[in-house]
From TrEMBL:
Organism: Ornithodoros erraticus
Alphabetized InterPro entries for the sequence: Biopterin_syn/organic_redct, NAD(P)-bd_dom_sf, SDR_fam
PANTHER family: SEPIAPTERIN REDUCTASE (PTHR44085)
Name listed for the protein in its UniProt record: Reductase
GO cellular component: cytoplasm
């Protein structure tokens, strides 16, 4: 196998289908499906996950960590109504703390002291991390915090390349369901955005092209729409 991809989710139901789709389109890729709840995973859970993955490819030329796991939070609430400390804490435990723990364990194995492996961290982000919209107080805070955490990490670790990728408004069932119960202002904004929604295949292709060319500076923010419109 030329490459190994490790995919994770809380339940195994969707993982196997995703694994099948990847392997059907890329015969030289081995896919490892791991059931893992990022809302409760510890640093040592991530260490064990990476240790299992390393058995499939001992000394990779390049190690890429993609932070894509995220939740939107309750989009029916305005920021001034956040009165539940448990709800707020749980949100950031999944959407920020787990990112830090996984990144730390990843860099322990494929970090600055690794002479033979190029290390890249991809943060799948959102325009909501840079622009304020009604109803997304938790989501926007989480996305903005992720970006700044990884930007600090990039400054501290010059040999690690960090890429923030905004995939655009992607056509998924989760997106449609989340917006359906959002505050009215956000529903109206989402309807405008839906006109420019893209497929998962289209936005993934742009990301792969950016990673393949390796022309970005560490900490760069890449927007799908801008790349897709470029000649």
């Amino acid at each position: 196998m030329d490459s190994v991809i490790v995919i994770t989710a809380r339940t195994a139901s969707g993982l196997e289908e995703t694994k099948r789709m990847i392997e059907a389109s890329a015969k030289d890729v081995e896919v490892i499906a791991e059931t893992l709840d990022h809302s409760t995973a510890s640093y040592h859970d991530y260490e064990r996950l990476l240790s299992r993955a390393a058995k499939h490819i001992a000394d990779p030329e390049e190690a890429v960590l993609v932070h894509n796991a995220a939740t939107r939070g309750d989009l029916s609430k305005y920021a001034a109504s956040y009165d539940d400390a448990q709800m707020i804490g749980d949100y950031f435990r999944l959407n920020l703390t787990s990112i830090m723990l996984l990144t730390s364990s990843f860099l322990k194995r494929y970090g600055t002291d690794t002479e033979t492996t190029r290390t890249v961290i991809v943060n799948v982000t959102s325009i909501a991390g840079r622009t304020a919209f009604p109803g997304v107080g938790l989501y926007s805070s989480g996305k903005a915090a992720r970006e700044m955490y990884l930007n600090v990490l990039a400054v501290e670790n010059p040999t690690v390349k960090v890429l923030h990728y905004h995939p655009g408004i992607v056509k998924t069932a989760m997106h449609a369901a989340a917006v359906e119960n959002a505050v009215p202002e956000l529903q109206a904004i989402a309807r405008d955005f839906d006109a420019t929604a893209v497929t998962t295949e289209a936005t993934a292709a742009i990301l792969v092209d950016v990673l393949r060319n390796r022309e970005f500076q560490s900490g760069t923010y890449v927007d799908y729409s801008e790349r897709a419109a470029a000649p």
